[in-house]
């Protein structure tokens, strides 16, 4: 099978063309990637969509894990959409995507690098002077993207309180209980939303525009994502006909997990990103390069990697926010993609993980 990303990608300069579970992330554990595309994935290049297996993976809902679930499978072998339980059967129904938002933030940061306005080794302290304590060692953009920043946990964070991004960062920088960053050889890959709050602040500082403005002009409008947006602070509403009628989401998860979208939009965004439409080749390759510390399965650019039992390798992101647990994944060559959104009724992370993996196994 020819991997389309081994060739120079057609990067559309979209700005010109169109102008661990902390607060928002449900993380699939991962195995380290050894090569871009496994032999098993290549052998499955034309595997038909197994509609029966997918419907079975959704389950008979509600049960003890989900009250409702929706999945959309796309790619070269066709498309399938299914739903079960107390969620809308409308394929355009919206839901809160949680930490899938981080992929949008990653894309903007990499575009700014392509424009020469940022670099992977740019220290955050250089862009946002005074935001982090002066005695802390430099923390780079790459470390934020890949969750290897070593930042302490926001120990003074109050559940249910709405913070501005700068206020949220202070829950780790001005909280004695948070401690100091982990540095040097002790650094590991620790998934944390604060990394992406800082990235959102960097984007605003470098561009002189709000994160939402950059999101709209660089990604949402050029790709025609009609159901995708970032609610303003304090806006807890959902569009009419949302996937499920859930309580308002609070606090504001912003650049790390605050967006609303639907399955079709997420499929279009993810496949455009992996295809190379949003980034030039030198930035595109960072989506798939694993850092030295990859214990949680995130690439240098923060893309989540997982290898299924049959060897198929998938790339994307999970999210959990405002009552929804969701995911968007695809093979690197976009042969097959999966977007799902569920409404969990349990806090049993093992049970949730097993069901998500079962759905991915059926999809790919």
Descriptive overview:
The protein is an alpha+beta fold and 364 residues long. The chain has a single domain, classed as 3-Layer(aba) Sandwich (Beta-lactamase). It is built from 13 helices and eight strands. The strands form two sheets. Strands 2-1-8-7-6-5 form a six-stranded antiparallel sheet, sandwiched between helices. Strands 3-4 form a two-stranded antiparallel ribbon. β7 and β8 form a beta hairpin. α3 runs antiparallel to α13 (349-363), α4 (101-114) runs parallel beside α8 (194-207) and α7 packs across α8 (194-207). The two termini are 16 Å apart.
Q: Give the helix level as a range of percent.
A: 25-40%
- Main β-sheet, spatial strand arrangement: 2-1-8-7-6-5
Q: What's the alpha carbon Rg, rounded to whole Å?
A: 19 Å
Number of domains: 1
Q: Name the average pLDDT.
A: 89
Signal peptide: 1-32
Domain Beta-lactamase-related: 71-342
Keywords: Hydrolase, Signal
Protein name: Serine hydrolase
